[in-house]
Amino acid sequence: MTEIKENALFIADSHYPHHGQEFLTLLKKLDSNTIEVSQLFLMGDNFDLLFGYNDYIQTFAEEAITLLQKLSKKIEIHYFEGNHDFCLKELFPHIHVYDRDVQPVTFDWQNKKVAISHGDKYATGFGYDLYCQILRNKTTLQLLKPFEKVIIDHRMKKLAQKHICFTFVGFQERVKKILLHYEGVDCVIEGHYHQAKVIDNYISLPSLACQGKVAMVKSNEIVFTIL
Ligand SMILES: [Mn+2]
Predict the structure, then answer these.
(1) According to a count of CB atoms within 10 Å of the terminal CB, is the N or C end of the chain lower?
(2) For the domain with range 8-225, which CATH number is right: 3.60.21.10, 3.40.190.10, 3.30.1490.20, 3.20.20.60?
């Protein structure tokens, strides 16, 4: 089991480049050592839309992608694919990339078991599961190719206009349902919901796009902070 270390940084739901430049700014600070971290956990949906097997989609976030590729050679990076960023293994060969199927992944933190995932795996329903399976597939993505520019341009425009920051009414009930899927772990860390809340042993990470915050391990605690 991989250990979560002091000064580990968690970045969730930046939805770059449509919902702020903070993700790119943070990557630049990591590159220049303005911020120093022991590990980087990218929790999914840091890109508003990015998937593998497609060159055109990369043109929307070229600088961030190149920086991440560079950083991954000097920092330990764990990438939990989200519903906006997937099929990324070949794009980031030096990053530990976890697709939706292998999530959650259990880490060790002070001899406790911590389960980590993007957060869209449980309590979402069969239709969503099927949609995810079809979309996150090399063949599907390659079939898109002849229409890619039209489809991707349309999708990018829609995503840029989407309101993504809400208070989830009844979030406590959703968390209860999610936690039913986690047995034998001491703590759960997820993004996806943009809530920045801790409910019992469930940590719903802040969204960099919504709260402008990240999470960091400081003095053996996970704190939400602005960097
Ligand atoms: Mn998400």
Answers:
(1) N
(2) 3.60.21.10
